[in-house]
Design goal:
The protein is mainly α. It has one domain: Rhodopsin 7-helix transmembrane proteins (Rhopdopsin 7-helix transmembrane proteins), CATH 1.20.1070.10. It is 78% helix and 0% strand. It is globular, with a radius of gyration of 21 Å.
């Protein structure tokens, strides 16, 4: 998806700019979790140092939080495209897109920073087995040999602000999109307006559904196994599905894929003919 957006000028628009960055986040989130998870699956010694564990936890939280902000920005992009199409190019300029992208990363960093300021100095001198397949904040906190109530509260508040804030912003954007689309007189026009949002809505539903279930509840002791399943969906399955969702539900991406395959086949045929 990243290569398609970079190489095909038909996809050089704000919408696909954010799709490419969403794909980048999907790759990096999986890269923080999957390699160590596979190593622990196939190796007899299943260990991770405290420094590596906290680093994995930090980058997973940072990248995951950034993804929520990117999804919210994509909702805003669709809102401008459908509700204010004549000013779309002016509002969603290249400069605006870069500011929104950088703002997403900076906001994610600022939001998760207090939690990790409280986690970093905690002593870990007791149990050393993490009841999870990677270092997430909640199972790591349970291993601390100190009062973790303040760190847990900070973790819960940051999760609630991130998830509910970005979710409500997305809902508001789509409420305006639905209202505007229903005012379009032609059925074809309404269908076209809704079709541009299908892929994004699918990704939002998958990502927010599992994340809200995992992180918004203050008490998480009795549903560890269910949490693990939801986390697999959130960190592995959904990132793998996102490129396919945007390909299947998007006419421009499908055309770009066909063109790329056609060019690749032609190039191979030319190389074989020269040989």
């Amino acid at each position: 998806m990243i290569l398609l957006v970079c190489c095909d000028y038909h996809l050089h628009s704000p919408m696909y700019f954010f799709v490419a960055n969403l794909s980048f986040l999907d790759v990096t989130i999986m890269s923080t979790v999957v390699p160590k998870m596979l190593a622990n699956t196939f190796l007899l010694i299943k260990t991770i140092s405290l420094e590596e564990c906290l680093t994995q936890c930090f980058f997973y939280s940072l990248l995951g939080s950034s993804e929520f902000f990117i999804l919210t920005v994509m909702s805003f992009d669709r809102y401008i495209a459908i509700c204010n199409p004549l000013r779309y190019a002016l509002i969603m300029s290249k400069h605006t897109c870069i500011i929104l992208l950088l703002g997403s990363y900076v906001s994610a960093f600022v939001l998760i920073l207090p939690t990790f300021i409280l986690i970093a100095p905690l002593p870990f001198c007791g149990p050393n087995v993490i009841n999870h397949f990677f270092c997430d904040s909640a199972p790591v906190l349970k291993l601390a040999c100190a009062d973790i109530s303040l760190a847990e509260l900070a973790d819960f508040i940051s999760s609630a602000v991130l998830l509910l804030g970005s979710f409500l912003s997305t809902v508001v954007c789509y409420a305006y999109i639905v209202i505007t689309s229903l005012r379009i007189p032609s059925h074809q026009g309404r269908q076209k307006a809704f079709s541009t949002c299908v892929s994004h809505l699918t990704v939002v539903t998958l990502f927010y559904g599992s994340s809200i279930f995992i992180y918004i509840r203050p008490k998480k002791d009795n549903v560890v196994d269910v949490n693990k399943f939801a986390t697999v969906l959130n960190t592995i399955i959904t990132p793998m599905l996102n490129p396919f969702i945007y390909s299947v539900c998007n006419k421009k991406v499908k055309e770009s894929v066909r063109d790329a395959i056609s060019k690749y086949v032609t190039m191979l045929a030319n190389l074989n003919s020269h040989k």
